[in-house]
UniProtKB/TrEMBL annotation:
<keyword id="KW-0732">Signal</keyword>
<dbReference type="InterPro" id="IPR018682">
    <property type="entry name" value="DUF2167_membr"/>
</dbReference>
<feature type="transmembrane region" description="Helical">
    <location>
        <begin position="255"/>
        <end position="279"/>
    </location>
</feature>
<feature type="signal peptide">
    <location>
        <begin position="1"/>
        <end position="20"/>
    </location>
</feature>
<keyword id="KW-1133">Transmembrane helix</keyword>
<keyword id="KW-0472">Membrane</keyword>
<keyword id="KW-0812">Transmembrane</keyword>
<protein>
    <recommendedName>
        <fullName>Membrane-anchored protein</fullName>
    </recommendedName>
</protein>
<dbReference type="Pfam" id="PF09935">
    <property type="entry name" value="DUF2167"/>
</dbReference>
């Protein structure tokens, strides 16, 4: 798979010509990539966190190595060794125009107390988060990235006290992009840490992502002895944050503003979009940067690379 992806990158400059002259050739490249992936179903033993994934109905599992290949080599993200795998909708693949996925990782920083779950005013918390986001934009600009605006809740935070799962969604706007980004997160709490399940999607897919949440909530569970209720105050470490801190993103301080999940359209996909009347690939941003373009710019890009013969 890596060789196929490298081939695509090396010949990216020829993509516009290929599209104009032999569009089926480029489509075949992506079909080959999709066919090379080995999806799984059923019960999956997660490599970290002492947990198990029961692949929910309507999804297929992609292991850590393949997920990392997609995120880094195909979707243009920096390497992230914490990724344990991903859940991809059955009817879609990672190269489809409207594809999206849930990325799974584990954070073993201790037991997260949920005492504050019922006392949080999420409207007030949102105001604080918006201010924090504005402050972080100065660092984003220094790093050469577009500013990000926290528009609001796409789905207000909710803590399921029975399942010990927290989930919420934010709507983000990157730079001058016309299409906003969906940032949907779930945290499955355990005795010594938590599983992070994050949707990589666009705002237009909110309804589809939200409809899948009931199944996703129960898909990841800790093994006996490692569940939330197995916590031993005498021996186990308590995390430095609570439920409010997870939603506010304080837990992500070690990776800063680059931890925000976004969608990203690489030039190679933009060319396809122009050639096939709006075909668009929603992807992770390189260090969460989003560079999607309106249709007019995509068409102009294609015409620039394929001047009409007089």
């Amino acid at each position: 798979m890596k060789k196929t992806l490298l081939f695509l990158l090396l010949f990216a400059a020829f993509i516009p010509k290929i599209i104009a002259q032999k569009p089926d050739t480029l489509v075949a490249y992506y079909e080959n990539i999709e066919k090379s992936l080995k999806y799984e179903s059923g019960k999956i033993k997660l490599p970290e966190g002492e947990g198990t994934l029961n692949v929910p109905k309507g999804f297929k599992f992609l292991n850590a190595a393949q997920t990392q290949d997609v995120l880094s080599n195909l979707w243009g993200n920096p390497e992230d060794k914490t990724v344990l795998g991903s859940l991809v909708p059955d009817a879609k693949g990672v190269t489809h125009a409207n594809s999206w996925m849930f990325v799974i990782s584990y954070q073993g920083d201790g037991f997260v107390k949920d005492d504050d779950a019922g006392d949080i005013d999420y409207d007030d918390l949102l105001k604080t988060m918006k201010e924090d986001t504005k402050a972080e934009n100065e660092e984003r600009k220094k790093g050469g990235y577009s500013a990000v605006e926290l528009v609001g809740w796409a789905s207000k935070p909710y803590y399921d006290n029975n399942l010990k799962v927290l989930h919420w969604a934010k709507e983000l706007k990157f730079g001058q992009d016309e299409t906003n980004t969906l940032n949907y997160d779930l945290r499955v709490l355990g005795r010594k840490g938590m599983y992070n399940i994050s949707a990589v999607a666009g705002m237009g897919q909110l309804a589809e992502v939200k409809a899948s949440i009931p199944g996703i909530l129960k898909s990841v569970e800790f093994n006996d002895g490692h569940k939330y209720l197995d916590f031993d105050a005498d021996t186990d470490t308590v995390a430095a944050w609570t439920i409010g801190g997870l939603v506010a993103g304080k837990v992500l301080a070690k990776v800063g503003f680059f931890a925000i999940i976004a969608k990203f359209g690489k030039v190679i996909f933009l060319a396809i979009a122009a050639a096939f009347a709006g075909l668009r690939k929603f992807l992770f941003g390189k260090k969460d940067q989003v560079t999607t373009r309106p249709q007019e710019e995509e068409t102009a890009l294609l015409e620039e690379n394929n001047p009409k013969e007089e």
